[in-house]
Each structure stands twice: as structure tokens, then as C-alpha cells.
Amino acid sequence: MGRAICMHPEDNVATVLSDVDAGQEVEVEGAGKPLRIEAGEDVPFGHKIALASIAAQKKIKKYGETIGIATSAIKPGMHVHVHNIKSSRR
């Protein structure tokens, strides 16, 4: 089983603590409640995994802060990285 950490209860992504393979179950720690999610695709160590559906143009939240905007719809368990988000930093 993979592991991930969610930094804030409002976050919609978590950081995986090891490489995760598509179809692998991931236990998310620190989400305010126990959470397990199935990886929808491979997610490399240190990258983000979606905890819930994120519609295109919606905020990506990590550390309780907006870190980017989804450029396309992201399903739970999908890899969240530069291929499907744009920075909201100026």
C-alpha cells in the first residue's frame, strides 16, 4: 500500500511518500480523517495525488493555500503536476 500526506484539512491534494503505481491503494495521513484512495495512474515520489474531483479552472489547494489552477478536469487518485495545473503565483 502506498502512503501520502495531506498538509491541511482544506487541501484537495496530498503528497505521495514513495512511488505509487496505477491501481495501488494509497493511505492518506493527516487529512483530518482516515482516507484511502486508489491511484488512477502512476505517481512519482514527492508528487501530488488528487483526493477528490477537481474541475477545470478550479483551485489546487496544498498547505491550505492555492498553489495552482487545474487546466483540465482531474479525477480522484490522478497525478497532479505541471501537465494539468498552471501556477497561480505571479
Unreliable sequence segments: none
Number of helices: 0
The helix fraction, in percent, is under 10%
What is the annotated CATH architecture? Roll
Textual characterization of the structure:
The chain has 90 residues and is an all-beta fold. It has one domain: Archaeosine Trna-guanine Transglycosylase, Chain: A, domain 4 (Roll), CATH 2.30.130. The chain has strands spanning 2-5, 13-16, 25-29, 35-38, 48-50, 59-62, 65-70, 79-80, 85-87. The strands form 2 sheets. It has a 6-stranded mixed sheet, with no helix packed on it. Strand 6 (59-62) and strand 7 form a beta hairpin. 32% of the residues are buried. The mean pLDDT is 94.
Task: List key phrases describing it.
three-stranded antiparallel β-sheet, mainly beta, Archaeosine Trna-guanine Transglycosylase, Chain: A, domain 4, 39% strand, six-stranded mixed β-sheet
Architecture blueprint of SSEs:
Elements: E1 2-5, E2 13-16, E3 25-29, E4 35-38, E5 48-50, E6 59-62, E7 65-70, E8 79-80, E9 85-87
Parallel strand pairs: 1-3
Antiparallel strand pairs: 1-2, 2-5, 3-4, 5-8, 6-7, 7-9
Short description:
Strands 4-3-1-2-5-8 form a 6-stranded mixed β-sheet, with no helix packed on it. A 3-stranded antiparallel β-sheet has the order 6-7-9, with no helix packed on it.
